[in-house]
Amino acid sequence: MGDVSNVTFSNGWVRRGDEVLIYYGGSDTRTYAARTTVARLLDYVSNTPPDPCAAPPASNSALG
Question: What is the Cα gyration radius of the chain?
């Protein structure tokens, strides 16, 4: 098991035409690839509501 549970760290991506391969690591011992399209990624980032449990961006911190 890795140091951080329930988190995926992307290691990079490759675009081939409209297809996108996203490489990510799991449990500090494996590397995987997820396949999607540019249109599907754009739909996700444009239409998915914010996660209410996510931490606020650093720019919203009380330090500034």
Answer: 15
Residue bearing tokens 């990624």: 41
39, two tokens = 């249109």
pLDDT single digits (tens) 6-22:
677 777 899 999 999 99
Which of these, 45, 36, 43, 42, lies nearest to 18 by C-alpha position? 36
24 closest CA partner among 43, 7, 42: 7
Q: Kindly report the pTM of this predicted structure.
A: 0.61
Are the beta carbons of 2 and 27 closer than 8 angstroms?
Answer: yes
Residue carrying structure tokens 């329930």: 6
Is residue 17 within 8 A of residue 23, CB to CB? The reply is no
d(CA 1, CA 60): 32
